[in-house]
């Protein structure tokens, strides 16, 4: 395989997913390695370097990395990782470039998922859309006019940190009552003692308590989305992350909540869909970012 290639990495709290891609998104190789615990920056770097060297070939031209938190506007620094310890202004791009000898670009992991969906997934049909990643936390990405919106410092789009209850549970961000504290996997576990997959299995059996929980979940997610719709009026909302696999149980309540709360002109022709790329979205988006960073995306 003599074609140009890039690598994409999705750095998560429990696993690091790595892939090598062609310019059309074809994945030539992929694997994952455990994220060191505790995931201090130096420990993660020591896990990343051999994994990248294992994946890298002479045809690789760049590397993109999705980070669990905002990066700076130049996409060089990991500014903060709420759920990883001691990640403050970490020069990860410089560290990796020194180690592997390739250009490196960083971006928020939810933004990478959005880039992946915009490239090869559910977002390719839309110019203006919101992606929400419903997982351990709740991440977000905003696309306007076909372009990822990150704001003037690169940190915009933290949609899961918007408050829907000013007296609600404390959030790792310092906020209270954030959307993340109501509709993330951590919130489901805290409130029910079960994970999303277990609750979906109970709902599939018609257990009333599980069905009622998913209805309430859809209502809370609808409240959060209503606020976003009034600001952004997107064509579509794309729901990704592991909890989106249970969308059949909460989408009716979510849709009803939006119809109740959002003026018709704001939600006109709105489409709500489940993401298509699953847990590959972050890697693909990081690869897309790598292609763009060398002028080939």
Descriptive notes:
With 297 residues, this protein is of the alpha/beta class. The protein is 37% helix and 22% strand. It contains nine helices and twelve strands. The protein has a five-stranded mixed beta sheet, sandwiched between helices. A hairpin with a 7-residue loop joins strand 5 (78-80) and strand 6 (88-90). Helix 3 crosses helix 9 (281-293) and helix 6 (196-204) packs across helix 7 (208-232). The model has no long low-confidence stretch (mean pLDDT 96).
Uncertain ranges: none
| Continuous helix count | 9
In helices, the fraction of residues equals 25-40%
Mean of all residue-level pLDDT scores: 96
Placed side by side, the strands forming the largest sheet appear as 3-2-1-4-7
Number of strands: 12
Please supply descriptive tags for the structure shown above.
297 residues, alpha/beta, five-stranded mixed beta sheet, 9 helices, 12 strands, globular
Short description:
The protein has helices at residues 41-55, 92-100, 109-120, 180-183, 185-192, 196-204, 208-232, 247-261, 281-293; strands at 5-11, 15-21, 27-34, 60-67, 78-80, 88-90, 104-108, 129-134, 138-144, 147-148, 236-240, 271-274.
Helix and strand layout, with pairings?
Blueprint: E1 5-11, E2 15-21, E3 27-34, H1 41-55, E4 60-67, E5 78-80, E6 88-90, H2 92-100, E7 104-108, H3 109-120, E8 129-134, E9 138-144, E10 147-148, H4 180-183, H5 185-192, H6 196-204, H7 208-232, E11 236-240, H8 247-261, E12 271-274, H9 281-293
Parallel strand pairs: 1-4, 4-7, 8-11, 11-12
Antiparallel strand pairs: 1-2, 2-3, 5-6, 8-9, 9-10
Helix pairs in contact: 1-2, 3-9, 6-7, 7-8
